[in-house]
């Protein structure tokens, strides 16, 4: 799979006590146009797995190349993922990144067992974009798009 280029996202939510949780995901895609559904895959061993199993909503942030450190932090077990002040609470109190390429708010739709992962399917409730180009992960390295 290292030979397959993918975008880089972080996915965030809050649990029922209000604690923020998140993870880095390169397995993200559109699942349906009507209704608008997207999916991400989460390892069952992730510290945040229990929070996402019960979350009513989550937010997917498509990262740009300058956010490599953030992607690495969200992919590191035990790291203080929300350090640095880049996140603010959105309308439902979940953490939202202010400067991602694209921000997609989702209501939980379906969760599927997939071996050592859980597939989280969310119905898109809102999406915001800016002009920055997304990061690409290829051959275990972060890369930037070059558009002529």
Structure description:
With 148 residues, this protein is mainly β. The chain is 9% helix and 49% strand. It has helices spanning 49-54, 68-74; strands spanning 6-7, 9-14, 20-25, 28-32, 37-43, 57-62, 87-89, 95-97, 102-114, 117-129, 135-138, 141-144. Strands 3-2-6-9-10-5-4 form a 7-stranded antiparallel β-sheet. A hairpin with a 4-residue loop joins strand 4 and strand 5. The longest helix has 7 residues, at 68-74.
Identify the CATH architecture. Answer: Roll
Helix content: under 10%
Largest sheet: 7 strands, antiparallel
CATH H-level homologous superfamily name: Electron Transport, Fmn-binding Protein, Chain A
Question: Given the helix and strand composition, which structural class is it?
Answer: mainly beta
Keywords: Oxidoreductase
Domain Flavin reductase like: 1-144
Protein name: Flavin reductase family protein
Pfam families: Flavin_Reduct
Supply database-style keywords:
single chain, 148 residues, mainly beta, Pnp Oxidase, Chain A, three-stranded antiparallel sheet, 12 strands, 9% helix, Flavin reductase family protein, Split_barrel_FMN-bd, NADH-dep_flavin_reductase
